[in-house]
Amino acid sequence: MNKLYRKITARPKIVIILFMVATVICAVLGNFVSVNYDINSYLPSDSPSTVSIDIMNEEFEGGIPNVRVMIRNVTVSQAMEYKERIREVEGVTDVTWLDDSVDIYAPLEVADTDAVESYYKDGAALYSVTLEEEHILDGVDAIRNIIGEENAMSGSAVSTAVATNSTVSEVQKITVVAIAFVLFILILTTDSWAEPIVILIGIGVAVLINKGTNLIFGEISFVSNAAGTILQLAVSLDYFVFLLHRFQECRNEHDDIRDAMVDALCKSASSILSSGLTTVIGFVALCLMRFRIGPDLGVVLAKGVALSLICVFVFMPNLVLSVYKLIDRTKHRQFLPSFDKFSRFISCIMVPFACLLSILVIPSFLASNANSYYIGDSHIFNEDTTLGKDTASIEEVFGKSDTYVLMIPKGDNQTQLALSDTLKKLPQVRDIISYVDTVGEEIPEGYLDQATHDKLISEHYSRMVIQLDTDYEGDSTFALVEEIRNTAQDFYDEYYLAGKGVSTYDLMNVVTSDMMKVNLIAIGAVFIVLLLSIKSLTLPVILVLSIETAIWINLSFPYFADQTIFYIAYLIISSIQLGATVDYAILMTDRYLENRSEMPKKQAITATISSCSVSIMTSASIMTVMGFLLGYFSTHGLLAQLGIFIGRGTLCSLAVVMLALPGLLYIFDGVIRRTTKNADFYGG
Q1: Of 200, 490, 524, 653, which is most buried with the most CB atoms under 10 A?
Q2: Using CA atoms, how far apart are residues 248 and 608, in angstroms rounded to an integer?
Q3: What mean pLDDT do residues 439-457 have?
Q4: Rounded to two decimals, what is the model's pTM?
């Protein structure tokens, strides 16, 4: 390794120029990476609802309604005028209203009440609008301009538009505040005014290159876009800090500055690489999810950590060698006090905390697995937001509703009529728009006008648009999806059902099956890496179980607070917290083994805590603050909750590593000595 590092540091200026050119290029390319805010689009391609949507898009021009528009205080004729204006918006492929279900020129009192009140109630008109994906942003704005601020609109397309507009500005705010906080922490924990700038340049290069290289994916998810930069910065920062600290230590042992850097790289390589590898594994485990937001986030984060490691071992050494004189000239006194008293205090309380952690393992595990969940995105924007208020306004008049589209083979009108009659017996079905319901089973296709024909019939299928009195998710909704599918199966061997509730049902089946698989593989992979790097049978068990308990404690908070959480955030945080915070445990253990070879176990514990506290607390405080910043600034409920999980989870891991892990190392010192290869313990 010594020869490799000498080659890396042979030409600092060339290396710096190459990285800076790559950074500028990637900073530009990052602006061209598109972001997907539609959760349901990340369902596996073979899920029933995804297959249904794909076939529907092939057969019909109008897809699944994705916007609900409510206009207050309008007559039927005024409502028809609004319908035509909305239909003319670019990207709108279909607008469904009362006239598609009943004859609006006959007295409405004689029409079916449920059908009428699905679209027109208390002087308010409710439209189901289908807006093409590529026109969502402009289309939502155009519809809002038509209806005015006093009226309401909701739906997945509106949610996507709001998320797109709000998340960009929110991430910018988070990034600015986060950089300011990181700079403040680095000033506190370093002894030179220039060191924080050097570290920020190093991590900044890695972050910008990662953002730019996301272009190879063409598109990334909103989770990766919002959390990727923050997590890469928080997770990777300690690699840069650790290398710089090692370099300063090695300068006391070498007269030549390059020799000091090479020695620092050799001494820090094992710790940084093992920490980086476990972090990458935690993120790569997300790639095993069938729900494709997991692989999307996992690849972006794993690539980010890998690029950070490259920058640490290639760019950072050359940058430091180029500016070390500036670092020396800007030295200042240490702002943080010695942690000797703190380490002695921890050594007094570590055994009780280790026992407490052991007691918490089972109840925290049980509580973390007993939470209530939101599966889809219907609760992402709460009632404090404009979208949340609009959704509540629509539900206040028309109740909760969803639109499903059922495609069946065309031709057998009698069977279609029987299916329609059976579906109408379901209490949640308010209205059905289909060939047999709207036109009549006796009317030949040739008598239909082209617009009606294209809306209801394609080359191979007949389409039934079902208005339902149901929420987008929940036990009753999922039971309804199963009942409609079973009913369709009774009449047809081939059918396709799509809709927001249907996609959420499929999403539930996918994400719940992912949970155990992802966690077990992540834990197993991290365990193997620790086994190979530490060469101990017991230490990997202690470290993984400690961090897993911290994860369970983090996830048990919502259970005791009776809070419903987003299952996607719950699923993702387990891998993120394991991958990001097991580094603290690794650093603590490495230093303990190093100190234990020179001193008794109690003294080794005290020395380890004293030497590790700054590094661990620096990394943990940055990740905690960044998580809470995401939770505070984001109006996107899933991102906000993920941020809270990250912030609180980091604090849980920090508490476990600083308070309980030293006690576990102390208690199991004898077992560790006997089960660790080449253990050279003092007095052993």
Answers
A1: 653
A2: 19
A3: 61
A4: 0.84
